[in-house]
Amino acid sequence: MLAGAAGLAALGATSLALPRHAWAADAPADASDITEDFLEKLFANNSEDIKPPGAAARLSQTQYRDIIADLERGVAIPKFAATEDSPDLFHTSSAISTTPFELKFAHLLALAEANGFDLALGTNPRVLFGLRGCRIALSSAEAFGTSIELIESIPDHYTPHCVIGVLDTTMGTITAYNASTVPDAAYVYAQATELEGANMMPTGLYRYDVGTHGASRKVIEARQPGAWRQARAWPVRRVRKVPQNRVLAYTHAAEWDTGNACGPLRPSTGNNIHAAVLDATSLKTKFSSAGCQTIPGRYAPRPRKPVGAFSRLREAAGLVSELALQEVDGVLQTRTSDDGKPFRYMLLTGREARIAATVTDASKSLQRLRYGSRGEALARLRAALGARGHVCTTEDGSSMGMRTVAALVKVQRELGVPADGIVTPELAGRLGFSLTEASSAPVAEVTTTPDMGPEPIAEPVVAPTESPAAEPLVAPAPEATPAPAP
Question: Where are the domains of the chain?
Fold first, then answer.
């Protein structure tokens, strides 16, 4: 048993200040009241719903305390990769700028068009977006309007250095909040030591459905109803070991987890969009994520409902603010009337947003193919990959999916260029086609399979029993997100 002050002493010189808001009446009044039961709620949180081979079922309290101590001693140093080493930034050929810039609604639409992203999804006029590596320039942590002022920033795996928001295509407006699109430091280290799964989502266009984050978790307080859940398998990057320099960074050398490129796609992780939970605490880490996209906020206990920026993001996305309580098999659980509602999520970088906002005719220089891209240029890419023996890419349907990304990464490594899973105009030229127009040279005909909906779902992605239609979405407890980081 971990007993009060003696237990905290085991954490090292820096005391671990536990979140007072997480469970309200359940939260201890002071450190001396910390119990195993309370810590169990804290630690049984945000790890991936589906684990990599060899990973533990869940970080134990002892393992988490060891991670905190190791990070404080500098045994490992989670760090965002420098531009030349970053799969997110290298293709921009641009250094960071510290000058604030005005990002307009039209700039984000231009970025979507340059990437071949189809933002339409049924009748939903709202699109979620994330920009990795920037913050709202004003003192406020949120912004609204037909344009917003941002400034580039470098993610550090401890505090929010990204922006997540909503595009309202009917009103032509942007709602944005400081947030995080990277995993937290503790989970980066846990993955590197094979204690737990963690990953970094590549930029691209994704499909999410409204549902409960962590719905399969036994600890009710660790579940977040009315969040957004990953709707299909998609590729991610992982850091599998601690290098000699101790720096844990998602560089070009990081492993791509793309499943079986020419066989059944194994489910990827549960990279959901949910409340950060730890933002109001004295912890060094202000969000809890093993790869999820997180927004400041939490779940209030009575009545159980989301609060903070996460609550306002949900409202901007048109979701109901009230959660309906119902009894299922004698257990009080929570659903929202929005469960199953689909959303697009466009994840790009602050660097690309700044270029789009400040460089004349930037849409041409920013033309890319990446995860989620569609259109004639994608067909030409698949033909070029097919000519090199990668014939399974068309099984992705009409959008660039895991098989196409897997084939592209393999070809990039064969060519000796950074394996970032992104096609630039220069790389397209090396592969014998153009992003902007069909090549006059004949290419092998490739037959594409029918598009299976807005974004074909290869396999259910969260725990096997979780399905937005069938699962009893669990009671909304203020999320006790995984173990906080240092």
Answer: 1-365+465-486, 373-454
